[in-house]
Structure formats: C-alpha cells, structure tokens
Amino acid sequence: MTRPAGPPAMRDGVGPGARFWAVLAIAAIGIAVIAGYELLILGWHPAREEAPLFSPYHWARIGLTLIMSVALVRALTGSASAAGRPMTSGEIGFAGAVLLSALAATGVMVADPAAFAAFAREDFLLEWGSALLLFVAAGLFLADLWRRWRAPGHRSAAALLGLALVAGFAGLFFVMGMEEISWMQRVFGFATPGALAEANWQGEFNLHNFQTGLTELALYTGAGVLLVFLPLLVEFAPGWRPFAWSRDFLPDRTVAAVGAPIAIFTYGQWNLVPLQLVSMVTVIAMVVWARDARRREAWGEAMLFAALGVFVALGQIVFLIAGDRMIEIFDATEWKEFYIALGLAWFAWRARGRSRRLGSTCPR
Fold first, then answer.
1. When comparing pLDDT for 23 and 160, which is higher?
2. Which CA distances in Å does 156 have to 74, 131, 165, 271?
C-alpha cells in the first residue's frame, strides 16, 4: 500500500535554507575559478569539445565536482520528504520506456557506431524529432497562455507574471525548434546571406552556430537545471515565495524522471565542469527520489528512480569508456538534444495538465 507523501520539507513561505545558498555560492565560485584558471593559465576554452581526459588534474577535478554535487543536493534535501504527489503507473511506465530507449541507443553506439551516427545526421530522424517535440512544447504553452489570458482576473500582478513566464516558455521552445532545423533553410532551399555565412561555423541560417560551443554549454546546463534540479528544488522547498505564483507550471519529479537520460550522452563536453555537475547531480537526485519513494512504500516509483540512478550512471560511464567508437565526436550531442526536447515536451504537457486540473493559482 502506498503511503501518502510526507510533509513538505519547508514551512509555507520559506525557501531553501542558508546552507543551500552558501553551498550554491561556493559551487558557482569554484566553477568560475576553475574556468578562469584553465582559460588564463592553461589556455583551454571554457566551452571546448574534445575527448574526455583523465589526467591526475582531471581526476582531482572530477572528485571536486562530485563533492560539490553531493553537498548541493544534500544541502537542499537533507532528510526531509518531498512534497510532490506520487507518480501514477502510467507516468512510471512512460519514464521507464524513455530510459530503456536511451539504454538501447547506448547499445547501438557500442555495437554499431555507423548506425548511431546515421540517426544523428542532419535532416534525419533525431533532428526532426527534436524540432517537432519542441514545437509541441511551444504549442502546449501557447494554448495555456490563451486559456490564462481569457481567465477572470488575469490582469493582477501575479497573473501577469505567470502570463509572461508561459509566453516566455512558448517563445523559447519555438525558437529552439526552428534553430534545430535552421529555420527550415533546407526545406525551402534558401541560401545563407553572405555576412551570416562567413560568421556561422557551418554556414547555416541559424544563431547557435555563431558560437556552437557556448550555445551547447548553455543549452545542456540549462536543460539539466530545468529538467532535474528545479524539480528537486520545487519538491524539497515548496514554500519558497517565487513558487507561489508559478506553481501551476513548475516541473515535478515526473519531469526529472523523463529528463534524467540526458545525462547519459555527455562525451565531447565531459571535460567541462558544469556538465559533469549536471550528470552527477542527476544521478544523486534519482537516488534521493528513490529513497523518498521507499519511505512512502511507493515501490513502483522507488524501483523506477533506483533504476534511473543506476543506469544513467552506467550509461554515462559507457560513453566515457567507449565513446571513441563514435564516427564523429558530436554524434552524441544530437541524441542528447533529442532527449532534452522530449523532456521539455513532457514538462509542457505536465504543466498544461496541472493548470487545467487545478486552475491558476494566481489571485483573481
């Protein structure tokens, strides 16, 4: 029998404690110091793409990142119980299917690198799948924006903040989808203007290839924060005041469960501390949710998160060990971006469903 969720980790109106903010500040300073040292002293670009390195320096840095990851999650969660509702069997099944598909992709990378690369080539399944999922996410938030705009009392300050956030998500995901397919350049067959073609690393009509490395670093780090860390913050610090007007469309543990496989496909950017942090925090967060589900005797949920913790870690290790089998170093990034898009589409679906079910929490 499933026990109800435990009490919220924080009292109403109270957010993460001073310890969490201190650890977060130390981690941010640590990342900045490491990036500055590597750029100014070692001459390493902060958003480089290269094969994973395991020199004594890199092992020491991995150890430091692991300590930061554990400290950050521990400072947020402690021994408290998550405040979110238990997952349904359908949600558990969907998240499990996503994990299995990611593990299958990992197996393809090891067994048949050419097939792994074929899926990742431009204008093929992964690229268009990612774009379509992002368009779905944008459409879901756009529909929610329309519903909120028509609701009574939508002109209150809190409601307007909610409208702005929903509109921001809709616009962001639409732009991301169009960027994925270079604004349909190859569909309509138009050329990239000369000045843009010279500045763009691939000569394409898009923005992200002006600085591909920095764009990927921002995307992959931001996806980890939105899909994994923010759900952890929402469920273990539910009384934080910014959540009062945005609770309808904040990601929950189901979003983290579906989004967790993005941490498997890190290879060319593994040497970047923020992405190591994303992978490690993801695995630790899965363990925390598994522990919380076990306390509530929600055994299906506990098994899901335990499997996510184990197999996301193993999948990442497989890529670090066998990733040199890939045809191109960037093949894994197309797979990562597909699972990011899938996580964002699920986030949009969950946010819309919660909003329709509960109604807006904005004052009316």
1. 23
2. 37, 34, 14, 46
Mean pLDDT throughout 217-232? Answer: 95
Percent of the chain with pLDDT over 70: 82
Whole-number pLDDT of residue 239: 77
Which of 98-101's residues contact partners 24+ apart within 8 Å by CB, and which partners?
A: 98/258, 98/261, 98/339, 98/342, 99/260, 99/261, 99/307, 99/308, 99/311, 99/312, 101/261
C-alpha to C-alpha distance for 258 and 339, rounded to whole angstroms = 9
Question: Is 36 a residue whose pLDDT tops 60?
Answer: yes
pLDDT at residue 213 in the model: 81
